[in-house]
Amino acid sequence: AQSVTQPDIHITVSEGASLELRCNYSYGATPYLFWYVQSPGQGLQLLLKYFSGDTLVQGIKGFEAEFKRSQSSFNLRKPSVHWSDAAEYFCAVGMDSWGKLQFGAGTQVVVTP
Amino acid sequence: NAGVTQTPKFQVLKTGQSMTLQCAQDMNHEYMSWYRQDPGMGLRLIHYSVGAGITDQGEVPNGYNVSRSTTEDFPLRLLSAAPSQTSVYFCASSYAGASGANVLTFGAGSRLTVL
After folding, report:
1. A81-98: average pLDDT
2. Residue B48 belongs to what H/E stretch?
């Protein structure tokens, strides 16, 4: 069965510091991979996606993610966080090409001054 | 262009009551879906539709019904609400991405409390 694991439930980071959020998946085929961000009381916004090709993908708001097939991982990174990056981040695996997604449990990011 | 619109944003129900969460999209997307979000569990797929007249169950379909009579609308019905259905519900629609896989666009969510 497919699964998506985000090992870190909660991360606290200082403004200006780097951020890395981990995502591991279990899936039989080459997956479609996504990172979404949810600000408090809001819907989900797509940060970036990986379908094929270059394993380092760039997204919005200065985020990037790297697909590592050997480690079944798709970790999200940002070199320097801003206070506005405080949110919950979800990794998701696409189970088909239509957009049926399986989500991880999410990682809450708190940014301190 | 409104995107994906969900109504209502908030609703309180008593156990056993019924209600419908509305979802409409104006992007002519074929695929629409409903997720529920619960703390510590991420989002879980309830039902989805790949086009008008076609629906299927997701991971947690029990207690929910859907129909898709038009491309634009995909309502989610709770026939007899239970406290376990207290959650935040998200509707999403998707388009065919450039690389052949769809990308979901989410509504703002509907927060449902069942007493």
Report:
1. 91
2. strand B42-51
